[in-house]
Task: structure prediction
Amino acid sequence: MLRARLIGTGSHVPKKILTNHDLEKLVETSDDWISTRTGIRQRHIAVDETTSDMAAKAAKNAMKAAGVSPRDIDLIVVGTVTPEMCFPSTACFVQSQLGIKSGAAAFDVSAACSGFLYALDVADRYIRTGAAAKALVIGVDRFSRIVDWKDRSTCVLFGDGAGAVVLSAEKGTKGVLSCHIHSDGRHWEMLYADSPCPPSPFEEKHISSRYLKMNGNETFKIAVRTMGQAIGEAMETNGLTPEDISLLIPHQANLRIINAIRDRLKLPDDKVYTNLDRYGNTSAGSIPLALDEAVRDGRVKGGDIILFVSFGGGLTWASSAVRL
Ligand code: COA
Result:
């Protein structure tokens, strides 16, 4: 049986750092409020690079770690909701920037902060069915373009960043063990960003706020519930107990959400990866960025089982279990 084995990880964040203290000069907030309510201390902001630039840099690092060349990749799937253009896709820009062979398939998936796990699910299916042999899966977002920097209830939460993995079709026990992706469009108004496109002259009514809007309190509650359910699905499908899990990498939105999930699972602190203090919520970039750090820091090694879980606008939520 073919499995999608993770053979390389990579990430990229822009150089510019915006600390909580910097935000104190932009909106009425404080380092104390942000860090106690969210766990975030700083975030990275793209200044002279686009979403696809960040994606390509993360992908290049992942390909280097995997030891694969641009001609080996036959599928590129990018999870993002902040592409620089309506079309072409960010995946096509990445293909062009990295010189990935002509004829490979390249497309984006839109699932907000669950974008990476949605993209992983798609690529995993291509690999298991034999439709692709080597896939590049990228999660990237540049929320600094869509947050309202005058709205203190949202702008303090987000940052820019990208992460990527290379998947290889291989026989054996290592690789993606399961993916579960879900959505509930009835609750789209909890968290959304309207189109940045100007209205058409034929439209009767164009309601566009352009900026990200969020009902923080409700989002918080639904995130804890749905991420808990998604982890349960991954564990049940694979017959896993908390002891079998080497590391849980949750979407990095709020430390209090992560702690609530940790407590439900009764996992010790050192089995739950967090880096949101340094990056904030990088949306689709969050999970692969954390994975890349965990791999490079030696927090995980070959054979370890990792659980990923995410939640985002849509509403969407997802989980995946992987044996490294
Ligand atoms: N600085 C200072 N005060 C702030 C603030 C900020 N940046 N943002 C909001 N406040 C104020 C509010 O205006 C409110 O003031 P009031 O009591 O005078 O009305 C007070 O702080 C409490 O606001 P509340 O929204 O109840 O705070 P909270 O403890 O629920 O935390 C979030 C707000 C946004 C941090 C929290 O709800 C959250 O993280 N939700 C999930 C969001 C998320 O992760 N979304 C992405 C999912 S992918």
The chain has ten helices and 13 strands. The chain has two domains: 2-172, 177-323. The first helix runs from residue 20 to 24.
